[in-house]
């Protein structure tokens, strides 16, 4: 039986502002802490070897629990999950800001990851269930995609300013202010949930959480231990086995944690792959250019953060301005494939960097090209990650796209940093007669950075080919009918 479509919520656009604030908090928390790490290390006295755990504690918890967080949001209500996630993230951040020991800082970072894994899919699924008209949906996801793509650069700017002007602890405390602002818009959001009484897929939870922990941990340790390390190989193999077992279990269980229909759809599957690959290019750019402008060009943390602002603006123009206008008229791959190729071109430009390259001719040009390309990728990819998904699966579909981002980020950090470090070591080994000269060290660093940029560019070209071949071209009329049919067949409560 067909039901008339409910009228659009008049508060949806103001609500989007507060939902995007929560997403910004989750995204910038990765890079804002990177800027603060040297000062925090000096204050708390932990070793260089332990430093990576401040980042890894967050990524492990966040990446491994996203699917569970998305399903909890589906069952308990996305607005409720959003509120719990934002409050928990704020409290964990306050704990980290007040930490007097390395152990307490690690615990707070892990808690941030736990609550972030609930907050991020809840935020995305709230948009998916709030904006159903094609043009409005494209615009809303364009804004959200811009935040997802540019939040890392904003984190660098904010982290540098807070660390210089106040203290590294404010890189944690600032989340409390952002969370409070996001929660103030809670009354504008409509609750939605799957009203069918369901059992939680415990075997699926155990397998996917264990598998993702093993994969993310293995990738994180590859940077320091090397890819041939028995521990790294063992963790990656264990993760692969657990994830294969997860797929087999999900095929047979009546109420799966992740219904395979969510990822096997060619349009959504292509969107997940595009997000994962795009993050490799984006984080690779942010990670190595952050070091380049500070260690090679001599920028302060604040100046380095300001240097990334043009990239954020380029993302905003393409994700918030161009993509939403084109998306209702063209298939998603018509934006995503060119976007990946444009970003690959920007990374190729960065391979020409020299130790004496100016900001305008080197980093600025590359960042503008990459940012513009990334906006064309992220806006349609995040939109179509929840495209035509059954209403009861909105949360877990949102968790899946966040998982793709997290795995892509882990691969970017581990793979590209390994390639860059090896290239730098090889260059310095060949310059033994000039060892100790500051110019040689800068040359070696640039050699490593440009090697990483070259690999990242190649990865994005390959991604463009894969996405172009994999994604189909959904027809708007059929998609709208499919969404209405799904909505009619499944009881979903809107309150």
Automatic annotation (TrEMBL):
The keyword Cytoplasm does not apply. It is found in: Cell membrane. The keyword DNA-binding does not apply. Its main location: membrane. The chain crosses the membrane at residues 12-33, 53-70, 82-104, 110-128, 140-162, 168-188, 200-220, 226-249, 270-293, 305-327, 334-352, 364-382, 452-471. It comes from the Bacteria. Residues 15-475 form the Major facilitator superfamily (MFS) profile domain. Keywords: Antibiotic resistance, Cell membrane, Membrane, Transmembrane, Transmembrane helix, Transport. InterPro entries: EmrB-like, MFS, MFS_dom, MFS_trans_sf. It is a multi-pass membrane protein. It holds the Pfam family MFS_1. This is MFS transporter. It comes from Streptomyces litchfieldiae.
